[in-house]
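Sample 3 of the quickstart, ligand magnesium ion:
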Amino acid sequence: MVELKSPEEIERMRVAGRFVAEILAELRTLARVGVNLLELEQHVRQRIQERGAVSCYLDYAPSFGRGPFRNTICLSVNDAVLHGLPFDYALRDGDVLSMDLALGIDGWVADSATSMIVGTADAEDLRLIKATEDALAAAIAVALPGNRIGDISAAIAAVARANGYPVNTEFGGHGIGRTMHEDPHVSNVGRAGRGYPLRPGLTIAIEPWFARTTDRIYTDPDGWTIRSVDGSRTAHSEHTVAITADGPQVLTAAA
Ligand code: MG
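Result:
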Protein backbone atom coordinates (compact mmCIF):
# COMPACT_ATOMS: atom_id res chain seq x y z
CA MET A 1 0.00 0.00 0.00
CA VAL A 2 1.26 3.45 -0.88
CA GLU A 3 0.65 6.22 1.64
CA LEU A 4 0.72 9.78 0.35
CA LYS A 5 2.09 12.30 2.85
CA SER A 6 0.67 15.71 3.68
CA PRO A 7 2.88 18.81 3.28
CA GLU A 8 3.23 18.85 7.09
CA GLU A 9 4.36 15.23 7.14
CA ILE A 10 6.88 15.94 4.37
CA GLU A 11 8.31 18.76 6.48
CA ARG A 12 8.72 16.33 9.38
CA MET A 13 10.57 13.94 7.07
CA ARG A 14 12.79 16.87 6.07
CA VAL A 15 13.82 17.31 9.70
CA ALA A 16 15.11 13.73 9.71
CA GLY A 17 16.59 14.20 6.24
CA ARG A 18 18.63 17.25 7.21
CA PHE A 19 20.06 15.36 10.16
CA VAL A 20 21.02 12.45 7.87
CA ALA A 21 22.73 14.95 5.53
CA GLU A 22 24.55 16.55 8.45
CA ILE A 23 25.94 13.22 9.68
CA LEU A 24 26.98 12.08 6.19
CA ALA A 25 28.85 15.38 5.70
CA GLU A 26 30.65 14.82 9.01
CA LEU A 27 31.58 11.29 7.97
CA ARG A 28 32.97 12.50 4.65
CA THR A 29 35.35 14.69 6.66
CA LEU A 30 36.20 12.00 9.20
CA ALA A 31 36.85 9.19 6.70
CA ARG A 32 40.61 9.41 6.19
CA VAL A 33 43.34 6.86 5.55
CA GLY A 34 43.85 4.86 8.75
CA VAL A 35 40.44 5.61 10.25
CA ASN A 36 38.62 2.47 11.35
CA LEU A 37 35.08 1.75 10.13
CA LEU A 38 34.14 1.13 13.77
CA GLU A 39 35.13 4.72 14.62
CA LEU A 40 32.71 5.97 11.95
CA GLU A 41 30.00 3.68 13.33
CA GLN A 42 30.67 5.03 16.84
CA HIS A 43 30.37 8.62 15.60
CA VAL A 44 26.97 7.93 14.04
CA ARG A 45 25.76 6.07 17.13
CA GLN A 46 26.71 8.99 19.35
CA ARG A 47 25.10 11.62 17.09
CA ILE A 48 21.86 9.61 16.93
CA GLN A 49 21.79 9.23 20.70
CA GLU A 50 22.48 12.92 21.36
CA ARG A 51 19.70 13.95 18.99
CA GLY A 52 17.17 11.49 20.37
CA ALA A 53 16.81 10.00 16.90
CA VAL A 54 16.16 6.32 16.13
CA SER A 55 18.39 4.20 13.90
CA CYS A 56 16.47 2.33 11.21
CA TYR A 57 19.23 -0.29 11.02
CA LEU A 58 19.79 -1.24 14.64
CA ASP A 59 17.85 -4.47 15.19
CA TYR A 60 16.67 -4.45 11.56
CA ALA A 61 16.02 -8.07 10.56
CA PRO A 62 14.70 -8.44 6.99
CA SER A 63 14.49 -11.73 5.13
CA PHE A 64 17.65 -11.05 3.10
CA GLY A 65 20.02 -10.44 6.00
CA ARG A 66 21.36 -12.50 8.86
CA GLY A 67 19.59 -10.33 11.35
CA PRO A 68 19.35 -8.43 13.47
CA PHE A 69 21.76 -5.74 12.21
CA ARG A 70 23.87 -4.50 15.14
CA ASN A 71 25.00 -1.16 13.74
CA THR A 72 23.62 2.29 12.94
CA ILE A 73 25.13 2.79 9.47
CA CYS A 74 25.98 0.68 6.45
CA LEU A 75 29.64 1.11 5.45
CA SER A 76 30.63 -0.62 2.21
CA VAL A 77 34.22 -0.58 0.93
CA ASN A 78 35.40 -1.22 -2.67
CA ASP A 79 33.61 -4.35 -4.00
CA ALA A 80 31.05 -4.06 -1.17
CA VAL A 81 28.12 -1.91 -2.23
CA LEU A 82 25.05 -2.39 -0.06
CA HIS A 83 24.31 -3.26 3.58
CA GLY A 84 28.00 -3.16 4.47
CA LEU A 85 28.40 -4.33 8.04
CA PRO A 86 30.90 -2.09 9.82
CA PHE A 87 33.87 -4.18 11.02
CA ASP A 88 37.39 -3.75 12.35
CA TYR A 89 39.00 -2.30 9.22
CA ALA A 90 41.28 0.71 8.86
CA LEU A 91 40.62 2.62 5.64
CA ARG A 92 43.41 2.43 3.06
CA ASP A 93 44.60 4.91 0.48
CA GLY A 94 42.36 4.77 -2.61
CA ASP A 95 39.45 2.91 -0.98
CA VAL A 96 35.95 3.61 -2.29
CA LEU A 97 33.72 4.07 0.74
CA SER A 98 29.92 4.01 0.43
CA MET A 99 27.93 5.20 3.44
CA ASP A 100 24.19 4.58 3.71
CA LEU A 101 22.26 6.09 6.62
CA ALA A 102 18.58 5.91 7.54
CA LEU A 103 17.11 7.24 10.76
CA GLY A 104 13.89 8.52 12.23
CA ILE A 105 13.03 11.61 14.24
CA ASP A 106 9.64 11.84 15.95
CA GLY A 107 8.33 8.95 13.87
CA TRP A 108 9.43 10.15 10.43
CA VAL A 109 12.26 8.58 8.50
CA ALA A 110 14.81 9.66 5.89
CA ASP A 111 17.47 7.67 4.02
CA SER A 112 20.52 8.80 2.04
CA ALA A 113 23.76 7.35 0.77
CA THR A 114 26.98 8.75 -0.62
CA SER A 115 30.22 7.32 -1.99
CA MET A 116 33.68 8.87 -1.68
CA ILE A 117 37.34 8.11 -2.25
CA VAL A 118 39.60 7.86 0.77
CA GLY A 119 42.97 9.42 -0.03
CA THR A 120 44.28 9.15 -3.57
CA ALA A 121 41.59 8.75 -6.21
CA ASP A 122 41.65 6.37 -9.14
CA ALA A 123 40.09 8.12 -12.16
CA GLU A 124 37.86 5.13 -12.93
CA ASP A 125 36.52 5.15 -9.36
CA LEU A 126 35.72 8.85 -9.65
CA ARG A 127 33.91 8.18 -12.92
CA LEU A 128 31.89 5.39 -11.29
CA ILE A 129 30.86 7.58 -8.34
CA LYS A 130 29.94 10.45 -10.66
CA ALA A 131 27.77 8.10 -12.74
CA THR A 132 25.70 7.20 -9.67
CA GLU A 133 25.40 10.90 -8.78
CA ASP A 134 24.42 11.80 -12.34
CA ALA A 135 21.88 8.97 -12.39
CA LEU A 136 20.41 10.20 -9.11
CA ALA A 137 20.14 13.76 -10.46
CA ALA A 138 18.52 12.53 -13.69
CA ALA A 139 16.03 10.46 -11.69
CA ILE A 140 15.14 13.34 -9.38
CA ALA A 141 14.59 15.61 -12.41
CA VAL A 142 11.76 13.36 -13.63
CA ALA A 143 10.19 12.82 -10.17
CA LEU A 144 7.20 14.91 -11.19
CA PRO A 145 3.45 14.54 -10.83
CA GLY A 146 2.09 12.95 -14.00
CA ASN A 147 5.20 10.85 -14.56
CA ARG A 148 5.52 7.25 -13.39
CA ILE A 149 8.01 5.19 -11.41
CA GLY A 150 9.22 3.76 -14.72
CA ASP A 151 10.40 7.23 -15.76
CA ILE A 152 12.68 7.33 -12.71
CA SER A 153 13.96 3.80 -13.37
CA ALA A 154 14.56 4.53 -17.06
CA ALA A 155 16.45 7.75 -16.23
CA ILE A 156 18.82 5.81 -13.93
CA ALA A 157 19.35 3.02 -16.45
CA ALA A 158 20.04 5.51 -19.25
CA VAL A 159 22.89 7.14 -17.31
CA ALA A 160 24.33 3.72 -16.44
CA ARG A 161 24.17 2.65 -20.07
CA ALA A 162 25.77 5.89 -21.29
CA ASN A 163 28.66 5.20 -18.91
CA GLY A 164 28.94 1.51 -19.78
CA TYR A 165 27.85 0.15 -16.38
CA PRO A 166 25.50 -2.84 -16.09
CA VAL A 167 22.58 -2.44 -13.66
CA ASN A 168 21.42 -4.94 -11.05
CA THR A 169 17.66 -5.32 -10.68
CA GLU A 170 17.49 -7.06 -7.27
CA PHE A 171 17.99 -4.02 -5.04
CA GLY A 172 16.70 -0.54 -5.82
CA GLY A 173 14.84 2.34 -4.26
CA HIS A 174 11.66 2.29 -2.20
CA GLY A 175 8.84 4.26 -0.69
CA ILE A 176 9.73 5.75 2.69
CA GLY A 177 8.09 7.76 5.46
CA ARG A 178 6.91 6.12 8.65
CA THR A 179 9.36 3.29 8.05
CA MET A 180 12.50 2.84 5.98
CA HIS A 181 10.98 0.53 3.39
CA GLU A 182 7.48 1.20 2.09
CA ASP A 183 5.78 0.72 -1.27
CA PRO A 184 6.38 1.30 -4.09
CA HIS A 185 9.60 -0.38 -5.20
CA VAL A 186 11.77 1.89 -7.36
CA SER A 187 13.85 -0.30 -9.66
CA ASN A 188 17.07 1.02 -11.17
CA VAL A 189 15.92 -0.42 -14.50
CA GLY A 190 12.54 0.15 -16.11
CA ARG A 191 10.42 1.46 -18.94
CA ALA A 192 9.48 5.11 -19.15
CA GLY A 193 5.75 5.73 -18.88
CA ARG A 194 5.14 2.49 -16.94
CA GLY A 195 4.53 1.69 -13.31
CA TYR A 196 3.01 3.45 -10.34
CA PRO A 197 1.92 7.04 -11.10
CA LEU A 198 3.80 9.80 -9.29
CA ARG A 199 1.49 12.03 -7.26
CA PRO A 200 2.04 14.94 -4.87
CA GLY A 201 2.73 13.46 -1.43
CA LEU A 202 4.57 10.38 -2.66
CA THR A 203 7.91 10.08 -0.84
CA ILE A 204 10.57 7.73 -2.16
CA ALA A 205 14.21 6.88 -1.67
CA ILE A 206 15.95 6.85 -5.06
CA GLU A 207 19.24 4.95 -4.98
CA PRO A 208 21.27 4.16 -8.09
CA TRP A 209 24.24 1.89 -7.39
CA PHE A 210 26.56 0.35 -9.95
CA ALA A 211 29.55 -1.94 -10.07
CA ARG A 212 32.18 -1.30 -12.71
CA THR A 213 31.87 -4.54 -14.66
CA THR A 214 28.99 -6.68 -13.37
CA ASP A 215 25.33 -6.56 -12.42
CA ARG A 216 25.69 -9.66 -10.25
CA ILE A 217 26.15 -9.72 -6.50
CA TYR A 218 26.67 -12.12 -3.61
CA THR A 219 26.30 -11.90 0.14
CA ASP A 220 29.48 -11.90 2.21
CA PRO A 221 29.88 -14.62 4.88
CA ASP A 222 29.06 -11.90 7.46
CA GLY A 223 25.45 -12.43 6.36
CA TRP A 224 24.84 -8.80 5.39
CA THR A 225 27.41 -7.17 3.16
CA ILE A 226 26.55 -7.34 -0.54
CA ARG A 227 29.51 -7.46 -2.92
CA SER A 228 30.02 -7.46 -6.68
CA VAL A 229 30.46 -11.03 -7.85
CA ASP A 230 33.62 -10.25 -9.85
CA GLY A 231 35.20 -8.10 -7.13
CA SER A 232 34.91 -4.93 -9.20
CA ARG A 233 34.49 -1.67 -7.36
CA THR A 234 31.08 -0.18 -6.71
CA ALA A 235 29.38 3.11 -5.83
CA HIS A 236 26.01 4.20 -4.44
CA SER A 237 24.14 7.53 -4.27
CA GLU A 238 20.78 7.99 -2.61
CA HIS A 239 18.35 10.72 -1.61
CA THR A 240 14.91 10.76 -0.07
CA VAL A 241 12.66 12.74 -2.42
CA ALA A 242 9.13 14.09 -2.11
CA ILE A 243 6.99 14.48 -5.22
CA THR A 244 5.09 17.75 -4.89
CA ALA A 245 2.97 19.99 -7.11
CA ASP A 246 5.93 22.38 -7.12
CA GLY A 247 8.34 19.68 -8.31
CA PRO A 248 10.70 17.24 -6.62
CA GLN A 249 12.03 18.14 -3.18
CA VAL A 250 15.20 16.49 -1.91
CA LEU A 251 14.51 15.91 1.79
CA THR A 252 18.05 14.69 2.52
CA ALA A 253 19.76 17.80 1.14
CA ALA A 254 22.04 19.72 3.51
CA ALA A 255 20.29 22.68 5.17
MG1 MG B 1 19.65 3.95 2.15
